[in-house]
Structures are given as C-alpha cells and as structure tokens.
Amino acid sequence: MTGSETFPMAREPRCPFAPAPGLTARPPVSRVRLWDGSEPWLITRYTDVRAVLADPRISVDVAQPGFPHTNPVSKARDARMKTLMQMDPPEHTAQRRILAPEFTVRKMTALRPRIQQLVDGLLDAMLAGPNPADLVEAFALPLPSLVICALLGVPYADRDFFQGVARTLVMDDPDPTRALAASEELNSYLEHLVATKAAEPGLLSKLAAEMSPRSIAVLGQLLLIAGHDTTAAMIALGTAVLLTHPEQFRDLSDPTEELLRYLSITHTEARRVAVADLEIGGQLIRAGEGIIAVKSTANRDPLAFPDPDRFDIHRPARHHVAFGYGRHLCLGAPLARVELEIAYATLRRRVPTLALGVPLDRLEFKENAIFYSVRELPVTWARPPTGSSPVSE
C-alpha cells in the first residue's frame, strides 16, 4: 500500500483539540509519505501502538537506516546529538538507571509544596495585573520553567535564554541551520555550568560524578526542553479545554488523566524503525522500514476508550499512552503529573470565574511546532469585591 497523504497532517480548525482527520480516517496500519519521499508505516490503533512501543525488534535509534525523520531539522539535529530518547538497550538502560532514581513518584510528590508555592505566586501576580490576561505568558510558560530550573540547578535568571532556544528547537523550520546553532549554544551553556561548577544544587551537579560535562549537557538539554515546553503546552491547552466545558471546570475532580488522553501535543508522534521482520495488526513490516506510532489516535480508540471524542473528567483514563509505553515510558511523567494536577486544581479553586477572553475560534494554535498548543490564551475573571483579595491556601 503506497502512502498518498503527507505526515504530519493538518488539524481541523473547527475541532482544534482533536487529532487530524487524516489520521483517524484511515486503516489501522497504512503507509504515509514524509517530506523526503520516504513512506513509513502509520500505526493508529491502541493495541497496535502499545505493541510497537513495547517490541524489542523495533528501534528508536535515529542512525538506523529507514528511521522516519519528520522534517529536515530533526534529521540534522539527530545526526549531531543523540539523547536518551534515541537510545536502545544497553545504552538506554544504563543511562536511564542513572536518572530514574531522581524522578520517582516519591521524590516528585515531595516537590508538591514547592510547586504549590510557585503556582500561587504566579496566580497572585496574574490576578493583581490586567484583566484579561494571557495565561500562557502569566502562568503556563513560567511555571514549568521555574520547576525544571530548580530541579536541574539551572539559574532561573537565564530563563529568557533557554526559552528562546526552546522556541527555535521545537519549530518546524525547513532550514535546520538555526536549530542546530541554538542546540549547540544551549549545549555549550550547560557544559559550562557543569564544568565550572556554576550550576546551582540540582540534578546537573549530581551527575557530575558519573558523566562527562558534554554528556550531562546533552542530557540537560533534553530534560530542560522536554520538561518545560511539553508541560507548558499541556497547561495552556488543557485549560482551554476546561474553559470550553465550564461544568467540568467547576467540578473538583482531577481532570489530569482525561486531559492527557483527550489532547495530543506532539505532532511528530512516536517514531521507530523495525530491525527485524515482524507483524503488526496483521501487516508484515520488514526490517529497515520506518514506523510512526500515533499516540493521539490510540488515545481516541473506541475499543480502549468508549465514546472517545467526548471529554469526561470522570472517565477512567490512566491507561492512556500520552507518556508512551514500555521501556521508553516518559521518565518525567511523575513530575508532569504533579505539575498539571496542582496547576489545574489551583486555577479552579482560586479563579472559579475564569473564562476565555475571546471565542474559541479566535485562538491561534501552534501548527508548525513539534508541540501543539495555543500561542496565547486570553482569559478573564470576575474581580473580587472591593477590599478583598484572593488568598493562597
């Protein structure tokens, strides 16, 4: 079967929270065309996606012939810098063993008071400022930046620098030159922090005894970008969903897992390459053929999630694959869950009158970036009576 549709595909503007129609209206296993003319297999069904993510005959190594690069930037960057996300065992196993103890549920739970303090501080500032406000700039972007900087030991005073680098790295630019230069600039910055012991107490300093400054810098770039941009996107996009479902915004149940299932923020999905012949969904896939496992459609599979296009915060949704599955399950998932739970809960508790400042169809979405979200999220709220003010608990 020859791929006739180019991946990634455009979303339907009238349904901005749903996967692209071109992903859902196709067979569970089919060919798709990439920018370079290659035709990897697109896997869309929940059980098949999990099978792909767990199969040891399928590799994440970007250097393997046939690996599906979704744009020139990712191909050029992957050729220059190999991170944990592009490693197979035993290299992946060894590096993950070093990092896993730093991202346990217990350690992330211990961060709750500090994250709550940061959330309240940002909301204090937003509520004291202009109304309406941009929730992305006032809250969604700075929160994960503050958290990941503290965790890694990167001075928050340098946030403008790494946020600018992050924006360059995640944009789908046909010319990889800017992204490669930005990536190298961030690597040099992080390497200097470690080598000169200028990093504040945190993960980068802890790793200095086990890894070279360059290896720590590459790993730090992955954690800094992934730990900041993905969570910022989910806070903003998730809040937009909640505000378009006001009855569920007012419900005090935790919406985090359903939002993770309902939304899909990664345009490029989970990319792999077969290193041996295998069968997925009844289709023979040969060694050397690329594979794209589509987590967004897996999370909308009616066999796994009945009535999947309905947003329902009471749905048992924790078996979603938003964080992946198998040995490459997102290392930072415990941290992301804590940040999202606190962010959504505090917004609903402290600003129960929060509402979109513009109609949904006027929001501008990031269609040309690796991580899908809103560029701005104008919000408004009812001012408290004169003489009172929001109080943090």
Topology:
Blueprint: H1 21-24, E1 29-31, E2 41-43, H2 46-54, E3 58-59, H3 72-80, H4 91-99, H5 105-110, H6 112-128, E4 133-134, H7 135-140, H8 142-152, H9 159-170, H10 177-195, H11 203-207, H12 213-243, H13 246-250, H14 256-262, E5 270-274, E6 278-280, E7 283-285, E8 290-293, H15 295-298, H16 333-350, E9 355-356, E10 378-380
Parallel strand pairs: 2-8
Antiparallel strand pairs: 1-2, 3-5, 4-10, 5-8, 6-7, 9-10
Give a quick summary of the entry:
The protein has one domain (21-380): Cytochrome p450, CATH 1.10.630. The chain is α+β, with helices and mostly antiparallel strands. Helices cover 44% and strands 8% of the residues.
Primary descriptors:
single chain; 393 residues; alpha+beta; Cytochrome p450; 5-stranded mixed β-sheet; 3-stranded antiparallel β-sheet; 10 strands; 8% strand; globular
- Unreliable sequence segments: 386-393
CATH A-level architecture: Orthogonal Bundle
Number of helices: 16
How many domains? 1
Q: What is the CATH class designation? A: Mainly Alpha
By CATH, the superfamily comes out as Cytochrome P450
Q: Strands across the major sheet, in which order? A: 1-2-8-5-3
Helical residues, percent: 40-55%
What's the Cα radius of gyration? 21 Å
Strand tally is 10
Secondary-structure element order, N to C: HEEHEHHHHEHHHHHHHHEEEEHHEE
- Biggest sheet details: 5 strands, mixed
Shape from CA axes? globular
Mean pLDDT level = 89
Q: Ends: how far apart?
A: 58 Å
Look up the CATH topology.
Cytochrome p450
Strand % is 5-15%
Category by helix and strand content: alpha+beta
